[in-house]
Design a protein that fits this description.
The complex is a heterodimer of chains A (251) and B (278). Chain A has 251 residues and is α/β, with parallel strands linked by helices. Chain A contains seven helices and twelve strands. The chains are: A alpha/beta (251), B alpha/beta (278).
């Protein structure tokens, strides 16, 4: 057996590491891996006496509920949300994200996606936004997005306490440098190579002299995930919990 | 309170004129008025300006597919885990529906301006997004209280009608919304709210200390109809679950126009009384 963990567990552990120091982590819809990472972070922080709070949009678990969507955005505007996750049909080298569509001629593009959701606001207001996209290819990681749902960086006069912090894919982990508006490779997942990342990335990025491998989750992390996180994340994401851990929602 | 209190859903749908600006609520939690949506399609409503608060799923997709919508103002139309919204995607690409892209807090902020009766609301973020570039109704203004601080001004959103589904209403026209506080913003901003409910509450919701805080006063309500399982195929929190099989069926069928028409026949027109053969 080459590994006793699955890709999802590797990504969850890596994201939980990025979330260190975040008092309130919010998670949007359709985000089971970021949601699990937030719960892992909360578990570790609570073990250490911390009070990390997690809000997962769309779940029926009472402790996660805010006073609706207005409250989520208003509290983010006040600085009460420390971390959030966004994705994109396209993500470019300046961390611009596109949730609208592919091709010229907006609004009649050749591919139309759902729309920008809260990205055009939360990307500005939440200090640590982690971009997450499981398909790492030249189709998704592009030189320049076809529609900017939310820009990666802003001119200095624009009020922007928040922005992109990292980009996590199925191949690797990038960190984003806001000053330089540029991604830097932070680690490559086990079983993958720098060449593979380069071949599948449509934008230019910085590479450190020694490329490190994304740390595999240790035994203790895996047991927290399988015993504690899995039954909780099964409430908003039953299919995910069943597929990855064979677990149903806690009674 | 209008005289359509306690009407059936078809009578309620008749209150929505062609060309109306109609606000509909996101899929989450079972507040999407799906039985009323089927009634709107049966009535053949046309040229709606749909405002999704702040997003929509099956509801907007069906109304668009059925040709009821001229304009959709939205932060997202999606079937979530069942995939992209097929009719929405087709109509935007074909140019048969005008799409006005927004972002969730901008929809709420516009409605908040609407409920306050003020012309606009400022909102952080947005600057540099192509949403702003394509919206000639947004303005980037200078913060009047600080130097060199650009901020986006959004026009008030005042829907003609707010349409949504709730668990409970009373005979006075008050409606109980549970934890979905955003429905208050939407109902307050609209000229009137048309509401379907799972069942009727005995007594006055506003006289019950525990229910009153999550109740919208009849002052804002233009009509109420009882529609049991009125969010189906969406579930209502605590009452019934999403009908996963129907969502999967829709995602498959609506991939083609023919399939979508078959869906309407089954789901929308199938509910209407059968016409006797002569």
């Amino acid at each position: 057996m080459s590994a006793d963990y699955v890709l999802e567990e590797l990504l969850i552990a890596a994201i939980a590491g990025l979330l260190e120091g975040c008092g309130h982590i919010a998670v949007g819809v359709s985000s089971p891996i970021p949601g699990s990472a937030a719960l892992l972070r909360r578990h570790r922080d609570r073990e250490a006496g911390g009070r990390t709070r997690v809000s997962i949009i769309g779940t029926t678990i009472p402790e996660f509920r805010t006073d609706g969507g207005v409250d989520l955005f208003d509290s983010a505007g006040q600085g009460r949300v420390d971390a959030f996750f966004l994705s994109g049909g396209q993500i470019d080298g300046r961390a611009n994200i596109n949730l609208v569509g592919v091709g010229d001629g907006y609004p009649q593009q050749k591919v139309r996606w759902s729309g920008s959701f809260g990205s055009a606001y939360l990307y500005f207001m939440v200090p640590k936004v982690i971009l997450f996209r499981l398909e790492h290819s030249r189709r998704t990681m592009v030189e320049s997005v076809d529609f900017i749902s939310a820009p990666g960086v802003s001119p200095p006069n624009v009020h922007r306490p928040g922005g992109p912090y990292a980009l996590v894919t199925d191949l690797c982990l990038f960190r984003f440098d806001r000053e330089r508006a540029r991604f830097a490779l932070a680690s490559v997942h086990p079983g993958h190579t720098l060449e593979e990342v380069r071949d599948n990335t449509g934008f230019d990025f910085d590479v450190p002299e020694a490329v490190t491998e994304t740390a595999a989750p240790d035994g203790q992390t895996l047991s927290i995930l399988r015993e504690t996180v899995a039954p909780v994340i099964a409430d908003p994401y039953p299919k995910f919990a069943r597929r990855v851990w064979g677990v149903s929602a806690a009674a | 309170m209008s005289d359509v209190l306690l009407a059936n859903v078809d009578r309620l749908a008749a209150e929505v004129p062609d060309g109306a600006k109609v606000a509909v609520f996101k899929a989450e939690g079972g507040c999407a008025a799906m039985a009323a949506t089927a009634a709107l399609i049966r009535r053949g409503v046309r040229d709606l300006h749909l405002v999704t608060v702040p997003t929509s799923g099956l509801q907007a997709d069906m109304l668009i597919g059925a040709g009821c919508v001229a304009t959709v103002e939205t932060s997202g139309v999606t079937l979530s885990e069942y995939g992209q919204a097929p009719c929405f995607g087709r109509a935007v690409k074909a140019g048969t529906v005008r799409v006005i892209d927004s972002t969730c807090p901008a929809v709420y902020a516009g409605l908040q301006a609407g409920e306050k009766g003020i012309p606009f609301m400022p909102l952080r973020g947005l600057i540099g997004s192509d949403i702003v570039r394509h919206r000639d109704d947004y303005r980037v203004i200078d913060n009047p209280f600080a130097a060199a601080d650009p901020i986006v001004a959004l026009p008030a959103i005042v829907p003609d009608i707010a349409l949504f589904h709730v668990p409970l209403a009373d005979r006075f026209g008050n409606v109980w919304i549970g934890r979905h506080a955003e429905l208050k913003v939407m109902a307050h901003a609209a000229r009137k709210a048309l509401v379907t409910c799972e069942r009727l509450h005995d007594g006055n919701l506003l006289q019950d200390e525990t229910l009153a805080p999550a109740t919208i006063s009849e002052m804002y309500i233009g009509g109420v109809a009882v529609a049991e399982r009125g969010a189906w195929p969406y579930g209502v929190t605590g009452l019934y679950d999403d009908d996963a099989d129907r969502f999967a069926a829709y995602a498959g069928m609506a991939k083609t126009e023919e399939g979508f028409v078959a869906w309407l026949e089954e789901t929308v027109y199938g509910r209407a009384p059968a016409v006797a053969a002569e």
